[in-house]
Amino acid sequence: MTDGRDRDRRVRRLGVRHPPLQARSEETRDRLLEAALACFLEEGVAASSTARIAERAGVTRGAYLHHFGSREDLIAAAIGHLMAGTMGSIEATIRRLFTEPPAPELLLHVWRDAYPDAYFAGYEMMLLCRHAPRLRRAWKQQSDALARRRRRVLLELFPEPLVDGRVNPFLEGFADFFRGIKLMEVVRTEAETRAVIAAMSPVLLEELRALQSLRGATVDA
Amino acid sequence: MTDGRDRDRRVRRLGVRHPPLQARSEETRDRLLEAALACFLEEGVAASSTARIAERAGVTRGAYLHHFGSREDLIAAAIGHLMAGTMGSIEATIRRLFTEPPAPELLLHVWRDAYPDAYFAGYEMMLLCRHAPRLRRAWKQQSDALARRRRRVLLELFPEPLVDGRVNPFLEGFADFFRGIKLMEVVRTEAETRAVIAAMSPVLLEELRALQSLRGATVDA
DNA sequence: CTGATAACATTCAGAAGTGAATGTTTCTAG
DNA sequence: CTAGAAACATTCACTTCTGAATGTTATCAG
Q1: By C-alpha distance, which of B181, B183, B172 is closest to B200?
Q2: How far is the CA of A50 from the C1' of D17 (A)?
Q3: B9-33: string of b/e by CB count within 10 Å (b at 16+)?
Q4: For the whole model, what pTM was predicted?
Q5: Above 50 in pLDDT, residue B56?
Q6: In chain B, which among 166-195 make CB contacts under 8 A with chain A?
Q7: Are A180 and B178 inside 8 Å of each other by CB?
Q8: Which of A41, A80, B124, B201 is found 20 to 30 A from B160 (Cα to Cα)?
Q9: Helical (H) or strand (E) element with B52
Q10: End-to-end CA distance of chain B, in Å?
Q11: Is A97 exposed, middle or buried (0-12, 13-18, 19+ CB in 10 A)?
């Protein structure tokens, strides 16, 4: 009951960090999350028991249980861990989309760099959200943080009035297209995937060009 | 061991169908598959035990076990059942795409009619395919059948040389976009979804118009 | 240096799920 | 009308997973 309050008080008393112990703890936590994501990716979420994850992390099941009260806790944390890990890549991709010339290769690179296999674990967890309110809340919280960061990048590249009106929604749709592509990789060959991207290239690149031409421009009202 | 051969011989001897018994059997099978898909959709594949599915189907666990030797068998069959059930909708959607005027509402209708919630079960099963070769084979077999049917519709609407070269790949990408949209519905409001569709409408509709203008035309070589 | 506490480890009991094994009923061919 | 097979039902044994309970070790404030 009062654990949370006690801990807060202690943390306040000691300052924000107490490195040695805390550091070890956070490393264990990180190892567990990394192992969880790797396990989800390679064996599937359903097949990833907490025991298997702890084993892969090289910690005991007890350590896992110390950090995460339940399997759901772990998954919720894994969602955050995955998103945090891909923030950099997403930021880089956005900059690239609106600075590099929109050639067909650009889309191939986006597909390869910005949509790594790790996303399969994300899709599985996203679908879990459908039936787990707590996971859905965790997802929303994390994706909101990601959206804020994305918006900051876009505000650098575009004048404010344009961002929410045209660039943001297009980027969402653009991302959705690649999410669909990524999902279908499960049952497609790489050649088929490339063919689909190639088929959609003209329209996407055209819109990209149109948006690029608006960079730095301002729109009144 | 010889069950398969014996059965084949018997079927050949008696003709392709022996209705009354066979009918009851197939009805049970269908109920199981329907229940499985409903369960997958409403509770998630992971949470859908064979017992729960049998219960929902209103049959005993024994009946289930008689029809499907393993849980994987059931899922493989469910993949086929889901695809078979959506064939008609897909065919109708394709006809609609290339006959109706490409207005923004068209895309909203496509989203609503051609991508029902039932697809969430499909996405979960698709992701299972990543770690289950048998499921992947089942998926490929079914989706090939679906592709053949789709091609037949397209050949009606377009002269042959165009189908594989331009129309088919575009349709794939078009579908991928909506798959991504559908997937993200898990963590989006309907308003957000509509905004994304609206943002992508111009480019998609333009391409659709371009393809429509090729209907009935022929290309030599 | 010492008590308190966080971090980690081990054991345990209960729940659930799967498929094999073994009945029982219903139907149909001959 | 009867043998036999298919459809359906029940029971059972086995494994696996999870989280609670409880024990041990390492760190730090005073």
Answers
A1: B181
A2: 8
A3: eeeeeeeeeeeeeeeeeeebbebbb
A4: 0.88
A5: yes
A6: 166, 169-170, 172-173, 175-181, 183-184, 186-187, 192, 195
A7: yes
A8: B201
A9: helix B50-57
A10: 53
A11: buried
Which of A23-32, B122-131, B156-165 has the highest mean predicted lDDT (pLDDT)?
A: B122-131
Structure tokens of A27? 């490393």
Mutate to test the interface with A, among B125, B128, B201, B203 (most CBs of A within 10 A): B203
Nearest to A44 among B128, B198, B200 (CB): B128
Neighbour tally for A164: CB within 10 Å:
13
User: Any chain A CB within 8 A of the CB of B119?
Assistant: no
B159 close to A (CB below 8 A): no
Confidence of residue B22 (pLDDT cuts 50, 70, 90): low
B204 or B14, higher pLDDT: B204
Burial profile B87-110: b = 16 or more Cβ within 10 angstroms, e = fewer: eeebeebbeebbeeebeeebbeeb
